[in-house]
Design goal:
The protein is globular. The strands form 4 sheets. The chain has a 5-stranded mixed sheet. The chain is of the alpha/beta class and 213 residues long.
């Protein structure tokens, strides 16, 4: 399970980050461990205690998160990508604190690796569950990500000023190739348990399908 934001450093004191608190991903890791899974939680910079029975790896940037995820994905059955991964990083991080010049400052941003895409390309890829954080047209954008990122399942949430990020509650819409289920709005821990249950069920269906082919 990945969780939390990533930070992309601009200089030794500044970074580009996002509003993810890690709560959703930590709740998923906890629910999976409670359901009997052996869980590795790869976490961006957050202020949360490690859930009981979970192995935790701390990272800062998207590239560090990608390396940590790839290090365990080859021997994992399921990867749940709840982290809000920075899509871009500063191309040339300044080794010293940037000073004010009185002129506009331009930062050249380059794209980070897409972690889910890298895991999807592994020869023995795990069952892949992504999240989609959208500010509008949640279902349409999430279904597009399900296809484009070759996911087995996606949990879509509407994010905004008081929604999705940071708060203790969330609302999730689950989508997979042949169907969908609205898990509604609830505490993130409650949603995480429902999500883990649905993932386990679809994971077992996918194994049974492979076994009978
Ligand atoms: O942490 P909280 O405060 O509890 O908030 C929870 C949450 C809103 C962060 C969480 O529920 C959520 O939606 N996480 C995914 C946020 C996100 O980055 O969504 P996205 O639509 O930009 O990305 C789609 C998927 O691709 C995600 O599974 C993401 O982890 C993955 N991704 C994105 C970029 C990238 N470079 N690599 C990726 O693997």
């Amino acid at each position: 399970v990945s969780a939390g934001p990533t930070y992309e450093d601009i200089d030794p004191v500044r970074f580009i980050g996002n509003r993810s608190s890690g709560r959703m991903g930590f709740a998923v890791a906890e629910a999976a461990a409670q359901a009997g899974a052996k869980v590795t939680l790869i976490s961006g910079p957050v202020n949360l205690p490690t859930p009981h029975g979970v192995d935790r790896v701390n990272v800062r940037s998207a590239r560090q998160m990608c390396d940590a995820v790839l290090a365990v994905s080859g021997r994992s059955d399921i990867f749940i990508s709840a982290a809000a991964v920075g899509d871009y990083r500063v191309e040339a991080r300044s080794p010293t604190k940037l000073k004010k010049t009185g002129k506009p400052l331009s930062l050249e941003l380059i794209q980070n690796p897409d972690i889910l895409a890298e895991v999807a390309a592994l020869p023995k890829r795990p069952f892949l569950v992504g999240f989609a954080a959208e500010t509008k047209d949640v279902e349409r954008y999430a279904r597009d990500k399900l296809e484009r990122k070759k996911l087995d399942m996606i949990a879509a949430n509407l994010v905004g000023t008081d929604l999705g990020f940071e708060s203790s509650e969330n609302a999730l819409l689950l989508l997979w190739q042949e169907g969908s289920e609205d898990l509604g709005q609830a505490d993130k821990k409650v949603l995480a348990r429902a999500l883990v249950e649905r993932i386990a069920s679809r994971f077992h269906t996918s194994i049974d399908k492979v076994a009978t082919e």
